[in-house]
Structures are given as C-alpha cells and as structure tokens.
Amino acid sequence: MSFRATLINFLLRRTLKKMLIQQGADIPVLRQRLGASERAAGKPRVGVQVETIDLDGLCLQKVVHDACTSQQAVLYFHGGGYVLAGSAGHIALAGRLSELAGVTVYLVDYRLAPEHPFPAAVDDALKAYQGLLDRGYEASNLILAGDSAGGGLAAATLLNLKNLGYAQPAAALLLSPWLDLSLSGDSMTRNDDQDVMLSTAVLTAWANAYLDGRDPLAPLASPIYGDLAGLAPILVHVGSTEVLRSDSEDFVDRVIEQGGSAVLKIWEDLPHVFQVLLGRVPEAEDSIALLAQYCIQQLKPKT
Fold this sequence. Notes:
Blueprint: H1 3-23, H2 27-39, E1 48-55, E2 58-65, E3 73-77, H3 91-101, E4 104-109, H4 120-134, E5 142-147, H5 149-164, E6 171-175, H6 187-190, H7 200-211, E7 234-239, H8 245-257, E8 262-267, H9 282-299
Parallel strand pairs: 3-4, 3-5, 5-6, 6-7, 7-8
Antiparallel strand pairs: 1-2, 2-4
Helix pairs in contact: 3-9, 4-5
C-alpha cells in the first residue's frame, strides 16, 4: 500500500467514519455536509467532455474522452447507500475509464431513498439501460458498472434484465459492491473496526431507509440471493478491510457455483471505493487500468 493511501486511511478514519457514525441516520444533514465535498471533487483530465442528458425525467451525465470513437458504453451507477447523490464525484473516474477503455460512460442520477424507496432505483436503472438501447447501442456493446450501493444496483439490473427477457450486456464492473442488505456477511463483524469509512450501524440505517419495510432478502434489493445463472461476466474489486468484503467474496463464489464467470480482485488495506481518489492515491489509477482492460476484453467481438 502506498504512503498516500496510508495517509488517506488515517484521515478517513478520523473524519468521515466518525461523522457517518454520528450522523449517518440523519440523511438531510448528511446530504448537506457531503454535498460540499462532492462539489469540490477532482476535475476530469484534459480532453474529457461532460454533457447532461434528460432521459424522460431521468438525468444522465454523458462522460466521454476525445480519443473515444467507438459505439460502446458503460452505464455507471454511483454509490451512496441509496440515499446520497454521487455522480458529480465520479466524473474524473468516468473520464479516465473512457480514455483508457475507449468507451462513453453514462453516470445515472437514479432516485434516492427515503423519498423514493426500493424498487425506485431498480426501475430507474432499467429505464437508463432501455434508453441506451433506444439510442442505438447494442446490448453486446454495453457494460454495467457501479460502486457500493451502485454496484449492488448494477448486479440487481443484471438479474432484472434476465427476469424480463432482455439480452445481457457484455459484462459488469462492481467496485466495493453492497450486495446483501441483510448485512449477514461475516466481514460486517470482522472488519467493523478495521474499515476506515463504513460501519455496520451506518449501513443498517441506510438499508432501512431504502427498503422501507420490504424484505432485505429480495433479490432485486440484495442480488446475492438471486438466481445468478446466465448473467454477464463480472469483475469485482474490493478492499481487504471493508465491511462489505464478504459481499464481494460470497457473490463471486455463488456466480461461479452457478456456472457463471466472475473475477475478484482484493486490494490490501485500500478504503471503500478508492477508485474515486484518482489523482490522490496511485492504486486508484492501477484499479481503473485493470477495469479498462477488462472492458476492452469483454467488448471484443465474439468469434
């Protein structure tokens, strides 16, 4: 682990984790406090263009690097426990992925809980996917991606597409995904103190806000409990000390057991969704480069 990552871990533990424990259940206050940091997020690299698209009331940020000429795209769902906005803080990540993989990245501003509980986010994800199909993208030229709750939403969308008879996309990228809203993974206890950002208590509050009394074992809320056969190939990145580590490990195991393709990369001591720290920790660039390589590989025409 780099010195910068060590420093970031220290700062996150002293600031963000402490604040989330104290105010994580107070969603309006949390949105106000974290909104300032979103606005201060790193700017994209030179050559990255950002365009806002209104998809029949659903807002997407289209992020594309000048070097991208392909008709291939990544549909990306931000994290934030289903209660926090996040697309603004992901533009730099999306721009770098566009540059390295040669794809257009669409960031989806899906509806948030508690104002819009489950399954609103799932419905918006399907609407965004259908919207790209309507714009001329082939399913084989699309990749779903997301981090944290957005990673869970990407996995839920794979299940939803299968249930509804849609063609699967070429692949999915899941970064520190939240795949089990029942919080039953053993890392919830094992890593509760080690995780420098999230805690079981905070995730419990956010799960309750999103589910609004619905069953946490519902597959479109907790994809780990779904029928995982026949899904697109999946790449998962997660930090070794995250409370959500078990979500990634157990999900990948179940996909493989059910005959699917899934690859897990565990990053030693890296914080939750460290990829958004592009330009601040070198491991973020390393991870995005691997994600881009996977995109290129999965988007190659099948012979």
